[in-house]
Amino acid sequence: MYGARPRRPYSRDTVETRLFRVLRWVVIAALLLVTLFPFYYMVLLSVRSLDELLRDPGALLVSPGEWDLSTYSEVLRPASDGGQGFLRFMANSAMVALGTVFLTLLIALPGAYAVSRLRFFGHRQISGLFLAVYLFPSILLAVPLFVFFSRVGLRGELVGLLLVYVSQIVAVAIYMLRNYFDTIPVSLEEAAAIDGCSRLGVMWRISLPLAMPAIMANALFVFMIAWNEFLFALLFLVEDRESWTVSLGLSQLSGSIEVPTTVLMAGSVIITLPIIIVFLATERLLVGGLTAGAEKG
Fold this sequence. Notes:
Elements: H1 12-46, H2 50-55, H3 70-76, H4 86-117, H5 123-135, H6 138-151, H7 158-181, H8 186-194, H9 199-210, H10 212-228, H11 231-237, H12 246-254, H13 261-281, H14 283-291
């Protein structure tokens, strides 16, 4: 009588499991290093004095006693006081970005809901048209928009820049929100309609709360585009420094020979922090937007 077959200590499944267990952490560490190191080095350069930077530009560790925060005060101080005026630039960018988010969602939400729920001639093709509008390069629209807004007197105004951003982003916002509205069961809206809700009531009480993760994801997407956009800001606002956005202000720093690298890095940190704060504040809703709709039942 033969005994049980001895188990091999290192089977293929065991080796693969242990290998991928180690590789997972190696990949995570590599991704964190590639993602965080540039930002860390940028912050490090912004808190070092110019003399220390020239003496040892490759230093990766600086004691808190060697920090020099005067670069941040110089970046935020108004230009009339010898600073770079970034506080005003951030206020301009915040107004434009938040206004773009508000107007885009105000137009995109009913538009996306209508495309998803209403049946009309060409409703299948219209989603493709919305996406096709976004595929046009911005440079093709730059000159016509520049001429148009110059003639109506909105060149150099933040309102004109806001309208340009909305016209550029609303199409893709409708396309993205429409895909999410399609995942919401129609039976929920039908039940609300039977209980006496109007079409607007169904949308307000049923569809919008369920679509909140997707709405927040789109709001962050729109905010990031409006905050970082440079081409149209350059065309419309370059003549009036008081109306500049942070992208224009940063380009002025990077294009100037007289501005030290430490000041440039401080400006880069300042314009990056709002995006990080908004992302961390909406992270839970963003994760919900990525996972919602994966299961239907």
